[in-house]
């Protein structure tokens, strides 16, 4: 990558997902710095990333992009603790949280007018993206963009890896994610509570349920609770799921009371 196309990217929150994104960004030739509550200085040294324990020194490092990879629940506290007056010039702030209206509203409220805002959600992670990002979905909304060049360079990080680039509003994202991502996590955790395990006579349908449980339980409860608490559409979807289960149970009880045997089916 030519120097004119490379970006100076600072990552806030260098946990598993921040490290996952950083590997590809480094491969593409971008210059990275990082800061985090935990000390990742040794790992960053191995990766060729400059690590800052002090947030003031981090912001003083003169970056094109500040990439927010914090947890959903800690975003407000992390952004609120930043001495934003230390920024040397207008900077593009990008978040990669699994909810979108929450970071959008927070960044619009906290950041100065000259700071650009790009809200994104890579719809994949370390497991699903371990073999590359080809055809994996990357959602984004250009919330407040004046520097189109820097924004385009950042989006190109994902487009050049073959991601399916989907531009939509943060509200549209949260509506769709409540019906898909949140419900998937909810069902997966319910299966875990039931201690669902493979049996010697599994049908294909049951195998799919077991496969659903494993990646969901690999995510933290902090992420799951964030999907519920910070997506205003999630509560309704949870109620819809509860209503659907109750409706199915009523249908079974009605059939049993009618004295009829249900048809034998394989699911």
Automatic annotation (TrEMBL):
<feature type="coiled-coil region">
    <location>
        <begin position="231"/>
        <end position="258"/>
    </location>
</feature>
<dbReference type="InterPro" id="IPR045011">
    <property type="entry name" value="TYRAAT1/2"/>
</dbReference>
<keyword id="KW-0560">Oxidoreductase</keyword>
<dbReference type="GO" id="GO:0070403">
    <property type="term" value="F:NAD+ binding"/>
</dbReference>
<dbReference type="InterPro" id="IPR008927">
    <property type="entry name" value="6-PGluconate_DH-like_C_sf"/>
</dbReference>
<dbReference type="InterPro" id="IPR036291">
    <property type="entry name" value="NAD(P)-bd_dom_sf"/>
</dbReference>
<dbReference type="InterPro" id="IPR046826">
    <property type="entry name" value="PDH_N"/>
</dbReference>
<protein>
    <submittedName>
        <fullName>Arogenate dehydrogenase 1, chloroplastic-like</fullName>
    </submittedName>
</protein>
<dbReference type="InterPro" id="IPR059064">
    <property type="entry name" value="TYRAAT2_C"/>
</dbReference>
<dbReference type="GO" id="GO:0006571">
    <property type="term" value="P:tyrosine biosynthetic process"/>
</dbReference>
<keyword id="KW-0175">Coiled coil</keyword>
<dbReference type="GO" id="GO:0033730">
    <property type="term" value="F:arogenate dehydrogenase (NADP+) activity"/>
</dbReference>
<dbReference type="Pfam" id="PF26213">
    <property type="entry name" value="TYRAAT1_C"/>
</dbReference>
<dbReference type="GO" id="GO:0004665">
    <property type="term" value="F:prephenate dehydrogenase (NADP+) activity"/>
</dbReference>
<feature type="domain" description="Prephenate/arogenate dehydrogenase">
    <location>
        <begin position="7"/>
        <end position="267"/>
    </location>
</feature>
<dbReference type="Pfam" id="PF02153">
    <property type="entry name" value="PDH_N"/>
</dbReference>
<dbReference type="GO" id="GO:0008977">
    <property type="term" value="F:prephenate dehydrogenase (NAD+) activity"/>
</dbReference>
<dbReference type="InterPro" id="IPR003099">
    <property type="entry name" value="Prephen_DH"/>
</dbReference>
